[in-house]
Write a structure and sequence with these properties.
It is built from 6 helices and 10 strands; from the N terminus they run E-E-E-E-H-E-E-E-H-E-E-E-H-H-H-H. The chain is an alpha+beta fold.
Length: 268
């Protein structure tokens, strides 16, 4: 059964509006999570805001948002001042513009969400917007308040639905050129390229979600289950750190040896 929507509102394009629901496309509900405890009493430890100078707890009504202007200086903003610059509506995805679907680099993508029509009457409008984006090869850009922050979002047609991606802020994305421009641009040796291509072909396989399974989590759950039943699971000795590889003097020989090892492994 699909999880219940965590957000409901309206999808709007000019005068066309339809009610929609949204759910995160990914989740961490099954992840192993730990509480911090007092080892002496077994009680949970709680966190509190304290004054950095006096060390005394700060009451919730005395907490304020401050922007640092110096080492110990801040400008305090009131809640109504912050609210004055936010979106008027937190429940409407008003599509401001459309851009080519392939023009937004992957580094801008943040979190995916499934956006679905919320009633049969509005479903037609939803499907028209979805199919129009698909036929024009575009994605919609809007703004929305999610996770307590106003965010730019992208709406992408996907199969029979629409995926809404929150986009990273401009100051969060670093320029690729700062990291890649100094990498050599000379053409690689054709023979080396052929050998690496052969290795890729021999290791190619259809995508399977099992490829991104979390073996660490599975082992933690085994330990938790054993301790719950009063048994102590034998701890696995730590593996020794592998020795640092030496410099590969001849990459051609290394590739040939790799291909030979791959072929030998398949014959077993």
């Amino acid at each position: 059964m699909a999880p219940r929507p965590f957000w409901k509102g309206y999808l709007k394009l000019s005068l066309v509006t339809c009610p929609v629901s949204m759910m995160p496309a990914t989740g961490e509900g099954e992840k192993v999570r730990f509480h911090t405890l007092n080892a002496q009493t077994g009680n949970r430890v709680v966190s509190r805001y304290v004054d950095a100078e006096t060390g005394k707890p700060v009451a919730e009504e005395d907490e304020a948002k401050g922007y640092p202007t110096g080492e110990a200086d801040h400008v305090i903003l009131e809640e109504d001042e912050i609210d004055s610059v936010t979106l008027e509506s937190t429940r409407t995805i008003d599509i401001d513009m459309f851009v080519p679907a392939d023009s937004i680099g992957w580094t801008w993508y943040d979190k995916p969400h499934y956006l679905t029509p919320d009633d049969p009457i509005g479903e037609e409008a939803y499907c028209v917007i979805r199919d129009a984006m698909r036929s024009t090869g575009t994605v919609g850009i809007s703004r929305l308040v999610l996770y307590r922050r106003e965010r730019a979002v992208m709406l992408e047609p996907r199969d029979r639905g629409i995926v809404l991606w929150t986009l990273r802020y401009g100051d969060e994305v670093r320029a690729e050129a700062d990291y890649f421009d100094d990498i050599g641009q000379e053409k690689v040796d054709a023979k080396l390229l052929k050998l690496v291509t052969r290795l890729i072909e021999e290791r190619s396989a259809p995508w399977d979600p099992a490829m991104v399974a979390d073996p660490v989590q599975d082992k933690l759950l085994e330990i938790i289950a054993a301790k719950t039943k009063g048994r102590k699971r034998a701890a696995k000795p730590r593996a020794e750190k592998p020795a640092a590889p030496g410099n590969v003097v001849n990459i051609m020989d290394a590739l040939k040896n790799s291909i030979a090892a791959e072929s030998k492994g398949r014959r077993r």
